[in-house]
Design a protein that fits this description.
The chain has one domain: 3-layer Sandwich (Rieske Iron-sulfur Protein). Strands 5-6-7-8 form a four-stranded antiparallel β-sheet, with no helix packed on it. A three-stranded antiparallel β-sheet has the order 1-10-9, with no helix packed on it. Strands 2-3-4 form a three-stranded antiparallel β-sheet, with no helix packed on it. By secondary structure, it is mainly beta. The radius of gyration is 15 Å and the shape is globular.
Amino acid sequence: MNPDASTIAAGAPIEVDLSPVAEGQDIKVFWRGKPIYISHRTKKQIDEARGVNVASLPDPETDEARVKSGHEQWLVVIGICTHLGCIPIAHEGNYDGFFCPCHGSQYDSSGRIRQGPAPANLPVPPYTFVSDTKIQIG
């Protein structure tokens, strides 16, 4: 007994199996009609995100605050640019994160705004790990 499409679109939680997502790969799913990027980050991406001086960021937030403890390799963000609502492209830009080609906003591998007109980081939706290879969003 699964919810129908209209219930899911209205905001029912969704489960996502992470097992087929290779290290360094991103997938996009939809929740509440919004694109959700799920990134399986490499050690290099995690180290770079954690090596940033948080005080230098336009919207200061640590990488640790944006991921779940014990699952640092997984980044889950709402893929809507905080400038004007465009959809950024994963693995583009100067910070191995997300690039919004419409007005040039660049986010790092933690989804934090680093450059451009966007005022805030990509939001992190409510999610939990239901197992080591499955998350529930919503």
